[in-house]
Structure formats: structure tokens, C-alpha cells
Amino acid sequence: MSVEVCSYRLTHKGKPVGSHEMKTLHRSHSTLLEGRTQFLGALGSASVVQRSRCGTGDRASQRFREDWKERSGQRTFDVVFDAEAGLVIASKGRDRATTPYVLPYRDPLALLLELRELGDAEHRVLPLLGRDVTVQRVGEVEIDTGLGNRTAVAYLLHPGGSVAYVDRDPPHLLLKLTQRMTGGFVDALLVAVSQGDDLQDFDAPSGGGPGDKGGGKRRRRSRRRRPRCAKRRDG
After folding, report:
1. HSE toward the beta carbon, residue 8, CA cutoff 13 A
2. Chain centre distance of CA 94
3. With helix as H, strand as E and coil as C, how does the chain read?
4. Residue 206's pLDDT is what?
5. Which residues contact 14 (CB under 8 A, 6 or more apart)?
6. I need a labelling partner for 108 at 20 to 30 A (CA). Which of 81, 188, 204, 219 fits?
7. Is the pLDDT reported for residue 166 higher than 90?
8. Band of pLDDT at residue 217, cut at 50, 70 and 90
9. Cα–Cα distance for residue pair 103/35, rounded to 1 Å
10. Is the pLDDT of residue 168 over 90?
């Protein structure tokens, strides 16, 4: 399957502070998303990898994982949205907590994907774990990107005050995202779009499958039968 790869340049007060890459794979029953961010310069040195699986129809999150790596160490946040069991299971390091699954929650990556699919919607409220995000269409603007000058629909997100700029034309790429972070606003501007390799799902086996001779069940040792000696007949 074809994976959409969008590459972004990060700037803070007009100066480069890193890069971001977003991968999207649409499947029949779900969509896989992966975001990789590298911070440099004024925002320090850190790398963040986010992964998401959400439903194809309602964009409800099924699982989300975030891995931070920086000089001081690393941390992981993992959430399973189990609608069938009616639970949300969150893990952070050794800590684990559960809460009732009462709404079709979105994770940060699923939220960005849904912004591309709003169409003519002027107002939308999307449930994230712990808070609701209000999305308000505020108009259109011309943006100079790596793909040339494009007309974008601007959406204001509250709380937070982030602004997402979505291409008016299909496939409605996220052209720019202005997001509040520590120290001020950071702009992510689209610079390139390409096709990538397949994305691995959370539950995909890492090895030892039917075709992997090194994994799976242990082989039973074959025991060779010793030939029976013919009984000696005394003449």
C-alpha cells in the first residue's frame, strides 16, 4: 500500500528549529499515522515519535503512543482505546491508569487527519482524552509552500490557540500548523510530499511468524530408529 509522506520545516521567530515528517497509510478498516519530530536550536535537542491507529469512518482513536528522547533521558506514553471493553488504558513509564471509554476520542495525530476532512464545516467539537477541542473555520489565506503558492482554509483550535492551514484542493494537505509551545509559537511549513514504505501496525509481529524459521514452535528432534538386529539362528 502507498504511504503518504509529508515533510515540514519548523521555525520559531523566523529561525529554523527542526523538522517534522508525517506518514499516513489508509487501510480498509483503519488508518495508520506516524509523526517524527526533531527539535534543534532554540528549542533544545530532542526527538519525538508519535504513532496512531484510528478508524477509517469516524476517526476514533484505537491506540496512540508517544516516545520522547532527549539528553536528560527518555519517556513513553501509550494509550489503548478499547471501545469494546469500555475502557481507556494509559501507561506512562511504570504508571498505569484506566478510565471509562465514553466518547470516540481522538489522539493528536488523528485530530490533524480529521482537520483535512472537515470540508465545508464551519464549527466542530472533537473529544480528546481529558478535554474537548473546538475547531473554528476562520477564512482562507494564500500560503507559499514547498509545493508553490496554495490557497488554504484556516482553522482556529481552542484551547491552545493553534492554527491549522489546510489546502483547499484535494487531497487537502496540511500546509502549515502554528502551535503554541514552551517559549512561544512554532510554525511547521510543508516543504515536500512523497511516497514511502509500508507502516507497521502496533500489533504486527516483529518476527517468528510462519515464514520465520528462527521463531515459532520449537522443532522436535527426529529420532532415527536403529535397525533391528536379526536374531542369530544356531544351526
Report:
1. 24
2. 22
3. CCEEEEEEEEEECCEEEEEEEEEEEECCCEEEEEEEEEECHHHCCEEEEEEEEEECCCCCEEEEEEEEEECCEEEEEEEEEECCCCEEEEEECCEEEEEECCCCCECHHHHHHHHCCCCCCCEEEEEECCEEEEEEEEEEEEEEECCEEEEEEEEEEECCCCEEEEECCCCCCEEEEEEEECCEEEEEEEEEEEEECCCCCCCCCCCCCCCCCCCCCCCCCCCCCCCCCCCCCCC
4. 45
5. none
6. 204
7. yes
8. very low
9. 24
10. yes
User: What is the rounded distance in angstroms from the CA atom of residue 185 to the CA atom of residue 190?
Assistant: 16
Mean pLDDT calculated for residue range 215-232: 41
Query: pLDDT per residue over 186-207, tens digit each?
Result: 999 999 999 998 888 987 654 4
Cell numbers representing residue 88 in the block:
481507556
* pLDDT 10s digits, 110-154: 999 999 999 888 999 999 988 999 999 999 999 999 999 999 999
Do 188 and 115 touch, CB atoms closer than 8 A? Answer: no
* Torsion over CA: 65, 131, 90, 85 (sign): negative
